[in-house]
Automatic annotation (TrEMBL):
PANTHER family: THREONINE SYNTHASE FAMILY MEMBER (PTHR42690), THREONINE SYNTHASE-LIKE 2 (PTHR42690:SF1). NCBIfam families: thrC (TIGR00260). Its cofactor is pyridoxal 5'-phosphate. Gene3D superfamilies: 3.40.50.1100, Threonine synthase, N-terminal domain (3.90.1380.10). Keywords: Amino-acid biosynthesis, Lyase, Pyridoxal phosphate, Threonine biosynthesis. The modification N6-(pyridoxal phosphate)lysine is found at residue 107. It catalyses: O-phospho-L-homoserine + H2O = L-threonine + phosphate. Its EC number is 4.2.3.1. This is Threonine synthase. GO terms for molecular function: pyridoxal phosphate binding; threonine synthase activity. The keyword RNA-binding does not apply.
Length: 435
């Protein structure tokens, strides 16, 4: 497998290089040179395969032998050991539940696959790998659990102080061992900027072997394609062929993976990106002006991203042809008030308790249905996190009905450990230098 940079299409690196570098020196993002087409026979019979089998087929096509088949199969079976069910909510509305992994968010797909890929390529006698990750809520917890105890790795998680939920914070700060948490007195964008600055710092790079566990890393994106294929398979079993995917979007990694799956031959009628008021992409699709803004805190905190990292990948997948992209991608934005309304209606009309991100996706599906000329499709909205991660947002009656998984009950017994830091790069550099 060869990868180029979105800033330099002549660059060509192999898969392990892209995984460990995370980001090319020119500050673009890695993309596969060859986007494989899955054969029609596979797509036609996809409903006969299990999630791990689909994942293996998709990963083999993308990785093109970068990992021998038996090893890749073992990695996938170990990483993707939980389900991603498509649950029917109404006649043509389905929810794709992606929160059945250990950290209760869709990030488990990417983080678990990535940690195993890195573990596979790392040699025992090599320099320690320093994994840096910025999180607005869910990524950090998944990465922490994915890398916990992985030999020769040390994870540093940066999160915006006071802007993640209590459970998310416990998931970040109670792991110990090789996992360190920093609460940054700023926004997620400040955290993301600090991490990116560290990758560009020659002194740090001379001393530490740095890599990123954010979705800028291609090994985070690849496993996120698996569940789009698997959702299509589940719908096909029910006789549905015309599928619209609605994706709660912040850093746009999730929907970038969906669009990559589409480019590999997954039949999709439409993608819809659903955002909160951090609406850089909906504004761009409306006005043609790509203007990032500092992120604003909302109930859907994992989507509080003002400068979505993966947008360049999406533009690149469509050769920067905005008109072509607008055909397949629509976008809607929602306020906190609208998010709450969505959560209420999902509960009162369907007895479904959804996290704020999921509720935003459901709202976007309803809007898209109103706007669509052809309304004959199965609408699948992605549920990216378990509702129990955001208890404070729910009205008491709904809150009381949220099932609390065992791993969350255990978190409360653990001790929080973190370092508070300002947004100056020098502070972060000093911290890393003290390792
Ligand atoms: N939504 C994220 C923000 C980080 O984005 P990622 O695409 O790098 O995972 C979070 O929950 O932290």
């Amino acid at each position: 497998m060869k990868l180029y940079s979105t800033n330099n299409h002549n660059l060509s690196v192999d898969f392990p290089t892209a995984v460990f570098n995370s980001m090319p020196a020119d500050k673009g993002l890695y993309m596969p040179v060859h986007i494989p087409q899955l054969d029609q026979e596979f797509i036609d019979t996809i409903d006969q395969f299990t999630l791990p089998q689909i994942a293996f087929k998709v990963a083999s096509a993308l990785l093109q032998g970068a990992i021998p088949a038996d090893d890749l199969k073992r990695i996938i079976d170990d990483a993707i050991n939980f389900d991603a069910p498509v649950v029917k909510l109404a006649e043509d509305d389905y929810v794709l539940e992606l929160f059945h992994g250990p950290s209760l968010a869709f990030k488990d797909f990417g983080a678990r696959f990535m940690s195993r890929i890195m573990g596979y390529f790392l040699k025992d006698n090599e320099q320690m790998l320093d994994v840096l990750v910025a999180t607005s809520g869910d990524t950090g917890g998944a990465v922490a659990l994915g890398f916990l105890g992985v030999p020769n790795t040390r994870v540093t998680i940066l999160y915006p102080k006071g802007k993640v939920s209590d459970i998310q914070e416990l998931q970040l700060c109670t792991n110990g061992q090789n996992i360190h948490a920093i609460e940054v007195e700023g926004t997620f964008d400040d955290c993301q900027a600090l991490v990116k600055q560290a990758f560009a710092d020659d002194e740090l790079n001379a001393k530490l072997r740095l890599t990123s566990a954010n979705s800028i890393n291609i090994s985070r994106l690849i496993p996120q394609t698996f569940y789009y294929f698997n959702a299509y398979a589940q719908l096909k079993k029910q006789g549905k062929r015309e599928v619209v995917f609605v994706v709660p979007s912040g850093n746009f990694g999730n929907i970038a993976a969906g669009l990559l799956a589409y480019k590999m031959g997954l039949p999709v009628k439409q993608f819809v990106a659903a955002t909160n008021v951090n609406d850089t992409v909906p504004r761009f699709l409306e006005t043609g002006v790509y203007e990032t803004r500092p992120s604003v805190q909302t109930y859907a905190n994992a989507m509080d991203v003002g400068a979505p990292s993966n947008w360049v990948r999406i533009m690149d997948l469509f050769q920067n042809d905005k008109a072509a992209l607008q055909q397949i991608l629509k976008s809607y934005r929602f306020t906190d008030q609208e998010t709450l309304e969505g959560m209420q209606v999902l509960y009162s009309d369907f007895n479904y308790i959804a996290c704020p991100h999921t509720a935003i996706a459901w709202k976007a599906l309803q809007e898209y249905r109103k706007d669509a000329a052809d309304k004959d499709f199965a609408g699948v909205f992605l549920s990216t996190a378990h509702a129990c991660k955001f208890p404070d947002i729910f009205p008491e009656e709904m809150k009381a009905k949220i099932e609390i998984p065992e791993q969350v009950k255990n978190l409360a017994k653990k001790q929080k450990q973190s370092t508070v830091m300002d947004t100056a790069f020098e502070s972060f550099k000093e911290y890393l230098n003290s390792y």
